[in-house]
Amino acid sequence: MITLWTDRFTRAAVPIAEHRAPAWPAAVLAGAFAVVTTWFVLMQHWSFRTGAFDLGIFDQAVHSYAQGHLPVSTIRDPNLILLGDHFHPILILLAPFHRVFPMAETLLVAQALFFAVSVFPIARLASTAFGSRIGLVIGTCYGLSWGLLNAITFDFHEIAFAVPLLAFGLAEYLHGHPGRAVAIAAPLVLVKEDLGMTLAVLGVLIALRPGTRRLGILTAVGGASASLLSVFVIIPAFSAYGNYRYLGKGGLKAPEAALSGDLFTSGKLWLVALILLPTLFLALRSPLVLLLLPTLGWRLGSTYILYWIPTFHYDAVLMPIVFCALIHGLALLRPHLLGRRRRLALPLIATALSITCLTFFLQSAASEGPGRPAEFAAAANRLIDRIPANSTVSTTNTIAPHLTSKADVYLLKSNRPTEWTLAPYDDPQLTYRHADLVIRDHDLLLMHHPAPTLPPLRER
């Protein structure tokens, strides 16, 4: 086994191709994904199928940066600087765009474009290795991979930045340019605190290549150090509690019994199988699969079931890794395919990949479509227009991200004395406080409450 893996590391040092395929087919494919995913996320938002957790929180965070302040969210906790929750300073790059377009849609469009752009290096790399037809099939399967679809259908998250960084970085690594790979992947340490460990594993792979040991060691040490510094120094410095809370409840431990699972369970094995299945397990032929370990490590090491059920955004960062590993694994397989077997193998593999991808797509939430703005959406928009800027509002999860650009938003369950309340009249969390204005539109109630009420955190 050791000899086998050593041989694979040695062969991994050889670029999968000396040239690069023409850019335009991959660019056209990425452009098509950009159009479709942008339309999808906007329609989903306008259909009130996004939420305060997590689009509303991130919209408030980026708005804070756009106003020149540290990121805070009244939805998450008005007394918490969000850098004391997760370390994601890369969000500041969205601030200039949010200042011009101060709305939650800005974040959704940015994420859609990030994911679409990541299709380009994957499709071009596969086209370089196997020809344009097979390359476009693999690029399409990647763009429709369930990890990306889940992230697109579940609001916005900071990991949107990591997806193109990994896709472009690993493509450069497989083209034999480790220096470029490190330069592209280095900003991962600014995306989220755990991604420095992914960078560290990339450094280990580079260190095992002849002639790049020093670069690899520096990358591995730098990535690991960045993660440790974020978890044990930077985040505790910003946290109101003086620690990194995800080492306890809400992280490695479930926050409540209803969300608790076993440390060893078949569900975790199923997650690993689902991650590798879109590549027909051919990704296992490549050492690049080792890049999965940091993210899978903290998720599988937790008893919090939300971290390892394949529903949310957590798997998006793993998709560029497994598809680059797939391409590399197929390239390593080529010398073993001779004559007719070689002519048939890639089309058969491409067909199997397409069938697997289509099956996963049909089972994902994306296959249901983004929804359509209905009477509820029209009524909600009419009442939202009545709420003045710089107000404080209590509302529901799905209405919240439509208000974060103009008001300080709190969820109903927080029971805050806000100036306004907007919610369905039959919402069980709705508390009827004294109001001097009550408007009903469709099934929604808008109430204005006289003082004393919460003042806005900051003006917009």
From TrEMBL:
Signal peptide: none annotated. InterPro entries: STSV1_Orf64. The keyword Transmembrane helix applies. It holds the Pfam family DUF2079. The chain crosses the membrane at residues 23-42, 107-127, 133-152, 182-208, 215-238, 269-293, 305-332, 344-362. The keyword Transmembrane helix applies. Keywords: Membrane, Transmembrane, Transmembrane helix. This is DUF2079 domain-containing protein. It comes from Kribbella albertanoniae.
